[in-house]
Amino acid sequence: MKAYIRSSACISPQKTFNSEGFLDDIVEYNGTRLNIIEPDYKDYVDPKLARRMSGLIKRGVAAAKKCLEGTGIDTPDAILAGTAFGCMEDTITFLTRMVEMNEEMLPPTAFIQSTHNTVAAQIALTLQCHGYNNTFVHKGISFESALFDALMLLNEKEAHHIIVGGTEEMVDASFKVLSRLGLYRRQPVLNLDLLKTEAKGTMGGEGSVFFLLSDEASGDNLAELTSVSTYYHPEDIEQKIFDFLGENGLTPIDIDLIITGRNGDIKNDAVYHKLNERIFKDKAIANYKHLCGEYPVSSSFALWLAANMVKRQEMPLSVIERGSMTGNLKRVLIYNHYQNKYHALMLVSAV
Amino acid sequence: MSSTVYIAGVGVISAIGNNVAEHLTAFEQERAGMGDITLFDSVHKGQLPVAEVKLSNEQLIQMTGLPVRSSRTTLLSCVAAKEAWDDAGIDDIKQFRTGFISANSVGGMDKSEDFFVDFIADNNKGKLRNVFDHECGSMTEIVADKLGAKDFVTTLSTACSSSANSIFYAARLIKNGVIDMAIAGGADALTKFTLNGFNTLMITDKNFCKPFDQNREGLNLGEGAGYLLLVSEKVVNRLGKKPYCKLSGYNNSNDAYHQTASSPDGTGSYLAMTGALAKAGLQPSDIDYINLHGTGTPNNDSSEGIAVKRLFDPQYPPVSSTKSFTGHTLGGSGGVEAAFSVLAIRHGLIYPNLRFETRMEELPFEPVKHYQSGQEIKHVMSNSFGFGGNCTSLIFSAI
């Protein structure tokens, strides 16, 4: 099962939205958390509606509309989102008021926007899309689950053009709780040094990255999403990668670049270091979490990166760990895992 | 892609029973599950009836063997998913590629809201074990581990249609050859968060709810879990017994009208029902029973009723809302009512719509008032609609 990536819109801690450049002006952060650069929403969301929307909802709507810009497609056939934590800002707001006001006289807005499907629903409402609408909320494979649904819909011929995205917001309360759970560095770190200074913990991140997937060939397509696969507690991930490539008629020799999910945490990164000397030996390696931080659907940023790299035939220096452009960039393999439980592979090919 | 997906196991827990057999008895006795809030302290105690599962967390922990800190949603999910799995009588889960596709709306909120009381007083306070499983995916992960179903594990959340969507996502995984079978459905425990949320919308009834009644005032919140074991043709041939039925139709459409309100003409529900019929290759007249979404709110029942009228007029099949027994189990409701739909086919049942008195002004039909057995039920439609305009209809068909 495969799809064309017609377009992509990326709201991230970097200048990736409505930007002509391609990671050529990197934003540096010193701390343990990266927050997205707020876009100017007025071109995408009616300001009257925007006032009631949380950041996550606005970002989803803006990114989805941006994906459709210039494609001649006004309404997609389906809308899919992946988000592990969902609408945290509204959830925290409603919880806080419920406790502080002792369950009395609560305003409903935060509650009605707190459900995980609000982003996909508000995109449908904005685009007046009555088609298939789904939201996946499974930790570190929320985005891949949504992508997989999209690939099945195209395979079933139930849809031709699908908006699919990964979206997550890092609010203060969740950052505090996740810090207490030990996910992040104890000391501030420069994001560009995150992967050079491995220690316990990473940097928190967030982002809203959407794609328009299509079953139609077009000169405008960025790339082909050739295959997606997820694994829960795989016994031997190296074998899974061989099998995944094999199912696509490929071996590691056929891959021009590997994008890995290194996040600067010693335990997290161990498997990447190991594979870089085995199945990925002699391969060009890129990383991305020093640019967007770690969050459950960060692999959506990696897919945006891969699709743009093969379209532009460019490897931005800021992401390269090893190797450089030698000849064509035809196939990129993205390998990410989330807390060593969920592993995911995405294969992106030039069109 | 045209392969058939069969239902080989059913599991359900709600306010009217802890397993399939207890549900069938409660339906026959027309016994609703609502009562006072006992699970937590709330200003709504004694004011708003709720439909609680009649087992404490301690009892559920004992039944499931799960850790003491477990969210009630995980516990309910585990009980029903295990029943669905055991029901099929397949001895080894590892002989086929097996998935666990689950759904819920607020994850481990029952524990998170306890954590939050201490947390907002001081951000360094609050027991972390109460928030560790906050994510919706945690419930799925824990139950998948318990079942040993690991070949495809994911979680969906589309508010009150969540587990209807997980069931048909599982069917599509089987049809696309990704897995051979899946336990699919969903769960939600009663929480202060959702109780207060629905209460702020002023769509909760202070009395037992009256779905599809002219004088309905709102919903009663419930809790529960419902799961089906879906199997491929390859697996069904290896079963020791006849499957219940097949999942013949499904559709997910969006109302695209308002974040919480349904459109007056029932656009989303009409599209979901027509889409499911088309998928099944059936006509409206083929449907023998509709398990309505029927929350009991003025808005839902009017919108859903108009959509039923647009599609079925003038020949209406028997319809009812089993939420008059179980309350609205939110992310669990699609799974709970899919279980009831499957059992309706197996046992020839039409469930009553309790407390119905007065036909709605705008509708030329009314729900079934009393329990009917011995019916010939070939095709059952189950409707599940949610916030965000998410509308899903499933159709189960006798084999």
Q: In brief, what are we looking at here?
A:
The complex is a heterodimer of chains A (351) and B (399). Chain A has 351 residues and is α/β, with parallel strands linked by helices.
CATH architecture level-2 label of the largest domain in chain A = 3-Layer(aba) Sandwich
Order of helices and strands of chain A: EEHHEHHHEHEHEEEHEHEHHEEE
Could you give me the name of the CATH homologous superfamily of the largest domain in chain A? Thiolase/Chalcone synthase
Contiguous helical run count of chain A? 11
- The name CATH uses for the topology of the largest domain in chain B is Peroxisomal Thiolase, Chain A, domain 1
Number of spatially distinct domains of chain A: 2
Instruction: Give the CATH H-level superfamily of the largest domain in chain B.
Output: Thiolase/Chalcone synthase
Number of strands of chain A: 13
Q: At CATH's second level, what is the architecture of the largest domain in chain B? A: 3-Layer(aba) Sandwich
Taking pLDDT < 50 over at least 5 consecutive residues as the criterion, the unreliable ranges of chain B are: none
SSE order of chain B = EHHHEHHEHEHEHEHEHEHHEE
Number of structural domains of chain B = 2
Shape of chain B: globular
Task: Give the CATH topology of the largest domain in chain A.
Answer: Peroxisomal Thiolase, Chain A, domain 1
Explained architecture:
The complex is a heterodimer of chains A (351) and B (399). Chain A is α/β, with parallel strands linked by helices and 351 residues long. In chain A, the strands form two sheets. An eleven-stranded mixed sheet of chain A has the order 4-3-5-7-1-8-13-12-9-10-11, sandwiched between helices. In chain A, strands 2-6 form a two-stranded antiparallel ribbon. Chain A has two domains: 3-214, Thiolase/Chalcone synthase (Peroxisomal Thiolase, Chain A, domain 1); 227-349, Thiolase/Chalcone synthase (Peroxisomal Thiolase, Chain A, domain 1). Helix content of chain A is 31%, strand content 22%. Chain B folds into two domains: 6-236, Thiolase/Chalcone synthase (Peroxisomal Thiolase, Chain A, domain 1); 247-397, Peroxisomal Thiolase, Chain A, domain 1 (3-Layer(aba) Sandwich). Chain B has helices at 20-28, 57-64, 72-88, 109-121, 136-147, 162-175, 192-200, 233-236, 267-280, 298-312, 323-326, 333-347; strands at 6-13, 98-103, 152-156, 181-188, 224-231, 245-254, 289-291, 319-320, 379-385, 390-397. In chain B, strand 7 (289-291), helix 10 (298-312) and strand 8 form a beta-alpha-beta unit. The mean pLDDT of chain B is 97. Chains A and B meet through helix 3, helix 5, strand 4, helix 6 and helix 7 of A and helix 4, helix 5, strand 3, helix 6 and helix 7 of B.
